[in-house]
Amino acid sequence: MVRWFFQFLYGSVPVRFVSQYSIAEAILRLSKVVKPSVLSSFAGQCAVGTVSQSKVRVERVIPFVGNAWKPFFYGTFTAGEAGAVLEGAFKFSAFTRIFMSIWFGFILFWTLLATVAILQNSPADLWFPLAGVGMFAAGVAMVRVGKWFARNDVAWLTQLIAQELGANSYQSTG
After folding, report:
1. What letter does residue 59 receive in the DSSP assignment?
2. Where are the domains of the chain?
3. Mode of pairing for the β-strands spanning 72-79 and 56-61
């Protein structure tokens, strides 16, 4: 149960793109399709982020649609035998992971304290810890719905990155 929860909230999808281009050419090609600002997305969906050898951060942006639970690609370029290799993973933004950690941590704290309080004082107030259980379920539902809305983002970004890097092969390394 604990392993499932951590994978559900903090899990990532590792991926590796092997490019036929040099690192400099791969960075240049990927930079051409990755916009530097969310403001670039008003014309239509696009990839937004930063591209450098030591830091690649890309997200799919759809105009007027916000989703804190969409996956971001975080990676770095390294030199491979036949060209550049972009290794990284798709995962939630750091803000989302921190926010949900605080959310679930507070709910766990609330539920434990409420349970201790009713065991010591008044068993008639059983609804008190059940509110924590309900908030936990609401948090899980919120994450599931957000992931469902972003269900195509990994495939969309994978296709875009592979196409621009001329990567005939890419693989999930997880």
Report:
1. E
2. 13-92+151-166, 96-143
3. antiparallel
Q: Which CATH number fits domain 13-92+151-166: 1.10.357, 1.20.272, 2.60.40, 3.30.310?
A: 3.30.310
Question: Could you give the count of Cα atoms lying within 13 Å of 34 in the half-sphere of its Cβ?
Answer: 25
Give the residue from 52, 27, 97, 69 showing the smallest Cα distance to 153: 69
User: Cβ distance 170 to 15 under 8 Å?
Assistant: yes
pTM of the predicted protein model: 0.84
Per-residue pLDDT of the chain (174 residues; tens, 9 = 90+): 788 888 888 889 999 999 989 999 999 999 999 998 877 767 788 999 999 999 999 999 988 888 999 999 999 999 988 889 999 999 999 999 999 999 999 999 999 998 888 888 777 777 888 899 999 999 999 999 999 999 999 999 999 999 999 876 566 655
